[in-house]
Amino acid sequence: MLSLQFIREHPDVVRRALEERRTPAPLDEVLALDERRRALLAETEQLRAEQNAAGKKIGAAKDAGERQRMIDAMKGVSSRVDELAPELREVEERLQALLYELPNIPAPSTPVGAGEDDNPVREQSGEETRDEWRKPHWELGEALGIIDFERGVKLSGSRFYVLTGAGARLQRALIAFMLELHIDKHGYTEMYLPAMVKEETMLHSGQLPKFRDNLYHDAEEDFWFVPTAEVPLTNLHGDEILDGDSMPRHYVAYTPCFRREKMSAGRDVRGMKRGHQFDKVEMYTFCAPEHSADELERMLDDALDVCRALRLSYRVVNICTGDLGFNAAKTYDIEAWSPAVAEWLEVSSVSNCTDFQARRANVRFRREPSSKPEFVHTLNGSGLALPRTMIAMIENYQQRDGSIEVPEVLLPYMGGTGVIR
Fold first, then answer.
1. Prediction pTM value
2. Torsion of CA 50, 56, 57, 59, to 10 degrees
3. Catalytic residue (one of 274, 343, 366, 367)
4. In 10 A of CB 311, how many CB atoms?
5. How far, CA to CA in Å, does 109 sit from each of 134, 219, 321, 332, 404?
6. What is 41-89 written as a DSSP string?
7. CA neighbor of 322 nearest in space, from 22, 15, 108
8. Which residue of the set 349, 351, 359, 360 is catalytic?
């Protein structure tokens, strides 16, 4: 959420940010409501000051008739105060609702562009290999009996699948490896989180109201299925004031994730690439504002460490303003090359959300015990997301005989299985 004071003092900055994002938002109504709110507050405060002053005079008056005249004269003031209260409440509620609809301000280093076609590639490691003998993961997985799409559809419908035997173990091995890499090498603290959260948790992380149509919700109870561990991690320190010496705080968590995917026919939806349920290892950071740019680079490198360990060809894409996520000021996407489908698959999105989420969740810190609380900066990044990492790994490690070699770093988690046949 943007600071109302910042919006009031820098409306041109916010308007330009909305134009660069290609995002319609009710900025003019926010400014008008803010002006009306301040006018109502000023009038209310003036009337209450008159009431207080009159109250002192009434209390000091010795003549009963004079006291009654003063009381009668203040009835109109009291009536006006009562009239203003519901209008002020309505204006404040509407203003708060509209503030939740304004996206974050892009960072100065975020490239300006209309959409994903304008995202520049910052770096690339490895080649776009293409081998005619390689099978796409949906053919290879079914041939090896490790991915069962038919039974996934039977159980839950389209966009679901079952991982069987070595397939299930391979995914579990990948999750365990990524968690241990981030914990042991990168210094993150592992968290086990609920996969269902309250509505306010979704609101404070920026998922609501923007992405309501893409979320799964229990209709009878206040449970929302998390679309990413970013949601509960954002709210982990909600309404808290952190000790400045305890930051930065780095957390990592594995969770299942649930999202309504709006899918159309075509190559984009083949196999495991898009689904309503998927797994993800998520990295998250709370830090002081002046450190968030450096923390973004650190988190990006931590995610790339997974690609390097798995020996996957990857590239880093600098997301432009027109493709930037709602909460983010700056984002890098990591894409892994998948040789059988011959495309770059997004396996991570690493974002600096500045104080945008912290304002919604009210997460602050003190630099010194006596200093004024400030909002923290929050960052999040996949480290990495499945099943696209699985897809890239399966297609890159398949052999000419139709088997899959297990990456060396996953061998300790595979119970001695080095090749899936």
1. 0.93
2. 140
3. 274
4. 13
5. 39, 42, 10, 12, 41
6. HHHHHHHHHHHHHHHHHHHH---HHHHHHHHHHHHHHHHHHHHHHHHHH
7. 22
8. 349
| Assigned token pair, 187 | 């210094």
- 109 noted as active-site residue: no
Condensed to tens digits (0 to 9), the pLDDT of residues 361-385 reads 999 999 999 999 999 999 999 999 9
The residue whose two tokens read 């991982």 is: 163
Beta bridge partners of 385: 280
Instruction: Indicate if 249 belongs to the active site.
Output: no
Cα 106 to Cα 110: distance, rounded to the nearest angstrom: 6
Who's near 185: CB < 8 A, 6+ residues apart?
Answer: 305
Is-contact 296 265, C-beta < 8 A?
no
Q: Which of 21, 134, 159, 259 is catalytic?
A: 259
Sequence-distant (6+) residues with CB within 8 A of 278 are: 256, 257, 385, 386, 387
346 is catalytic: yes
pLDDT digits (tens, 9 = 90+) for 26-64: 999 999 999 999 999 999 999 888 888 888 877 777 788
| Residue 256, helix vs strand vs coil | strand
Q: Decide if 299 contacts 306 (C-beta within 8 A).
A: no
Residues 6+ apart with CB under 8 A from 212: none
Residue whose pair of structure tokens reads 């070699």 in the numeric block: 405
What span, in angstroms and rounded, lies between the C-alpha atoms of 198 and 209? 13
Catalytic residue among 261, 346, 374, 403: 346
